[in-house]
Structures are given as C-alpha cells and as structure tokens.
C-alpha cells in the first residue's frame, strides 16, 4: 500500500508566493522567485546568520529580491556558513574553490583550510582566514563580488 503524503500550501519566505510543504518538512522551490527552503530559516538566521540550503540569510535575500537581484551570499554569510556547516564551495574564474574546518585532534581548535587543485592554505583562526585567504595574492574578501555560486558542499 502506498501512503499518501500530506501536503499544505504555505507562503514563500521571500516573495509570499504559494509553495507546497509536506509532512516530512520538505518545501517546493518557489516558482516565483527561486527561493529554496530547507527548514526553519528564521531560527538559522537568528543563530548563525545564514539560511539552508540557500546560504544567503533571509533578510539579505528579501533585500536582494526587492532590488531585483539574484540571491548571493556575501562574504560574511559565506564565513558564517562555513562555521555552521564546516564545508563550503564557490567558483571564481572557472575554478571551484573549497573552504573547510579541520582539526587533528578532538580538543584542538579548528583550522580554516582554503584550497583548490592548485594550492592549500591553512589559517589558525576565523579572523586570520577573513583577512588572509587569497587567490593569487588577491584577498578573498576583496574579490567576493566576482565570486560565483557560494554554496554548502
């Protein structure tokens, strides 16, 4: 016997258009604005300053939608996403880059690792990562407007 999945229509968190939400907590992608919802983004923004699976925070996404801009996380949201999820990706000039948190032993502080096929950089702290992570000498935070598709891994 096939169980019928219970569904309800709820408003999109960004534009208010109707989307379907089912009993398993899954949401339809919004056909109006393209927002993808994965859970309680209000709580995620309150605790972490991000959303899931879109990364860009709700408040920032609403602002981007009002301005007619595509959804894109800023550098601060990317770093907060890294702290929340521990593994992130983005594209820059046709190359995919990865950032992740790593530690050798359970009680050691996390290291911030930034890498691609060509290099690997390690940073001892969030602040050091924010200030020094770079691609060919260009600080990541300074070229962020050229980065494409920042996302969870």
Write the layout of secondary structure elements.
Elements: E1 7-11, E2 18-22, H1 41-48, H2 58-66, H3 75-85, E3 87-92, E4 95-102, E5 111-115, E6 120-123, H4 126-132, E7 134-135, E8 138-139, H5 140-143, E9 148-152
Antiparallel strand pairs: 1-2, 3-4, 3-9, 4-5, 5-6, 7-8
What's this model, at a glance?
The chain has 153 residues and is α+β, with helices and mostly antiparallel strands. The chain has helices at 41-48, 58-66, 75-85, 126-132, 140-143; strands at residues 7-11, 18-22, 87-92, 95-102, 111-115, 120-123, 134-135, 138-139, 148-152. The protein has 2 domains: 7-66, no CATH class; 75-152, no CATH class.
Radius of gyration using CA atoms only: 18 Å
SSE ordering: EEHHHEEEEHEEHE
Content of β-strand: 25-35%
Number of helices: 5
- Taken together, the total number of domains comes to 2
The best one-word shape is globular
Strand numbers in spatial order across the main sheet? 6-5-4-3-9
Largest sheet: 5 strands, antiparallel
* Strand runs, count: 9
Average of per-residue pLDDT values: 93
Fraction of helical residues: 25-40%
Which structural class do the helices and strands define?
A: alpha+beta
Distance between the termini: 36 Å
Which ranges are low-confidence, i.e. pLDDT below 50, for 5 or more consecutive residues? Answer: none
């Amino acid at each position: 016997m096939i169980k019928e999945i219970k569904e309800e229509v709820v408003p999109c968190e960004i534009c208010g258009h109707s989307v379907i939400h089912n009993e398993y907590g899954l949401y339809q992608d919004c056909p109006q604005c393209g927002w993808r919802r994965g859970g309680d983004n209000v709580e995620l923004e309150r605790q972490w300053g991000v959303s899931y699976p879109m990364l860009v925070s709700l408040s920032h996404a609403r602002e981007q939608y009002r301005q007619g801009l595509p959804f894109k996380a800023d550098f601060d949201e990317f770093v907060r996403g890294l702290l929340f999820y521990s593994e992130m990706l983005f594209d820059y000039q046709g190359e995919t880059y990865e950032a992740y948190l790593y530690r050798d032993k359970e009680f050691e502080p996390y290291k911030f690792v930034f890498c691609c096929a060509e290099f690997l950089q390690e940073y001892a702290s969030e602040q050091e990562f924010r200030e020094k992570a770079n691609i060919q000498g260009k600080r990541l935070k300074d070229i962020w407007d050229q980065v494409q598709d920042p996302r969870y891994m």
